[in-house]
Design a protein that fits this description.
The structure is a single chain. The protein is mostly beta strands and 129 residues long. It has a domain of 71 residues. It contains 1 helix and 8 strands; from the N terminus they run E-E-E-E-E-E-E-E-H. The strands form 3 sheets. It has a 4-stranded antiparallel beta sheet. A two-stranded antiparallel sheet has the order 1-2. A two-stranded antiparallel sheet has the order 4-5. The radius of gyration is 16 Å and the shape is globular.
């Protein structure tokens, strides 16, 4: 996978390897419910972390399953980021919300990136709802 923009941290190389649980080997398949779904040629905003996964210690993976991946969708008004968590029931957060940021319509990609940069240390901004 090749990142086009980094919001926090510096990539150590041009290409990143991202490991996600699940998949098929021979006739055995493992499905991770609410796991991130990636397709070649698609654009995403990913929240990555190093985790110890079964058989892959210190792997770079998507944080919090589907809550750590946003599909980037072109619209007439510009690109929008739609959380893959919209397809799965979420428990209420501290304020009682059960939808990911932007809900089914998503949130403007530029707005989301600006908020992430702010929360990552370039000046605190309030989280997007």
């Amino acid at each position: 996978m090749q990142p086009t923009t980094v919001l926090k941290g510096e990539p150590t190389r041009r290409e990143l390897t991202v490991t996600v649980m699940g998949g098929t080997v021979g006739e055995l398949s493992t499905v991770i419910v609410a796991g991130p779904e990636l397709a070649l040629g698609s654009e995403y905003l990913l929240f990555l972390n190093r985790e110890d996964l079964p058989g892959a210690a210190g792997a770079r993976t998507v944080r919090d399953l589907s809550q750590g991946i946003f599909d980037v969708v072109p619209t007439p008004g510009g690109k929008r980021a739609v959380s893959q968590a919209i397809y799965h029931p979420l428990l209420p957060d501290a304020t009682g919300l059960t939808e990911p940021p932007g809900g089914a319509a998503g949130i403007g990609l530029d707005e989301l990136m600006q908020n992430v940069r702010g929360l990552a240390g370039e000046g605190r901004r309030s989280p997007v709802r």
